[in-house]
UniProtKB/TrEMBL annotation:
Species in which this protein is naturally found: Streptomyces orinoci (Streptoverticillium orinoci)
Source taxonomy: Bacteria, Bacillati, Actinomycetota, Actinomycetes, Kitasatosporales
Name by which UniProt lists this protein: EAL domain-containing protein
Record-annotated EAL domain positions: 23-282
Source domain of life: Bacteria
Parent-protein residues present: 423 to 706 of 706
Length: 284
């Protein structure tokens, strides 16, 4: 990871740095990192395609490692998952993100009530106190459940039975929005979607790469068209990640996708920046 001037960080590609940093080195210092306050969260705006307004943000965790600098989640989340640290780390991310959402909402200059999206790992889904703790976090932050969206990857849910889905269903019944993350990469049976307590499909960026420049790849257009139509039939909204160009955003808006996230709007950044972005679109 490298500092990109000022207090902005570029999170390095997992492939470039991760191999260079010995795995055992990270494993040794991961447990202490939470106590040492070495994790921080960047927020990436979620934009409503119809009018370009910022509606919320996804919380993306980073580790400011005392020796290696800023590490991206791809470099330590798998490790946190295999060591079980993901449960306390995930709890911390949720608490922090809820606190941040409260702060945005308390700010009277914020034109819209911003929501926050938090990623959930499979191990957190299996954690028995997930529902109780999530409810407690929302209560403590004074946040209504609909201000929170939990993102669960498609691959984490493939094959889950009703018992395993129960905590998510309970959260959904309370009003928490559940998004199916990285949709389209898990090769799930589409009819399976009907059984899931999700309200949003988060379409993986691999589907929209072909729309970055004009003319758009006609096959990609057809695929996204099909997914949007399926999603809307099931009463799901569609968020597209990895939107890097205006051309792409235009296509996705015309195709009926509701929400977009990507570098075209903003890279992940500090929470104050989200506030500034939401102010900017209110005054434009
Ligand atoms: P994700 O949930 O699919 O998050 C989106 C990733 O795409 C983020 O990478 C984001 O920085 C990146 N991205 C956003 N816009 C663009 C774009 O326009 N182009 C491209 N090429 N990339 C874009 P990041 O921050 O490295 O996070 C990687 C993954 O780590 C996330 O993928 C998520 O699965 C996981 N993750 C992040 N934070 C947490 C967390 O708190 N808990 C858990 N369990 N997983 C997390
Ligand atoms: Ca996500
Ligand atoms: Ca994703
Ligand atoms: Ca993805």
């Amino acid at each position: 990871a490298k500092a990109a001037g000022g207090n902005r960080y570029e999170v390095a590609d997992a492939d470039s740095d991760a191999r260079a940093i010995a795995r055992h080195d990270l494993t040794n210092c991961l447990p202490g990192a939470l106590d040492n306050g070495e994790f921080f969260i960047e927020y990436q705006p979620l934009v409503r395609l119809a009018d370009g307004t910022v509606r919320g943000a996804e919380a993306l965790v980073r580790w400011l490692h005392p020796v290696h600098g800023v590490l991206g989640p791809d470099q330590f989340i798998p490790l946190a998952e295999s060591t079980g640290l993901i449960v306390p780390l995930g709890r911390w991310v949720l608490e922090e993100a809820a606190r941040q959402a409260r702060a945005w909402r308390n700010d009277d200059s914020c034109p819209l009530p911003l929501r926050v999206n938090v990623n959930l790992s499979p191990a957190q889904l299996r954690y028995p106190s997930l529902v109780a703790e999530t409810v407690a976090v929302l209560d403590n932050a004074g946040l209504e459940p609909s201000a929170l969206c939990l993102e669960v990857t498609e691959s984490a849910l493939i094959g889950a039975d009703e018992e395993e889905l129960r905590p998510l269903r309970q959260l959904a019944d309370l009003g928490v929005d559940i998004a199916l993350d990285d949709f389209g990469t898990g090769y799930s049976n589409l009819s399976y979607l009907r059984r899931l307590p999700v309200s949003t499909l988060k379409l993986d960026r691999s589907f929209t790469r072909g729309m970055q420049c004009a003319p758009a790849d006609p096959v990609d257009v057809k695929i996204v068209e099909g997914i949007v139509s399926l999603a809307h039939t099931l009463d799901l909204s569609v968020t597209v990640e990895g939107v890097e160009t205006g051309t792409q955003a235009d296509h996705l808006r015309i195709l009926g996708c509701e929400t977009a996230q990507g570098w075209y709007y903003a890279r992940p950044g500090p929470p104050e920046r989200l506030h500034a972005l939401s102010l900017a679109d209110a005054s434009s």
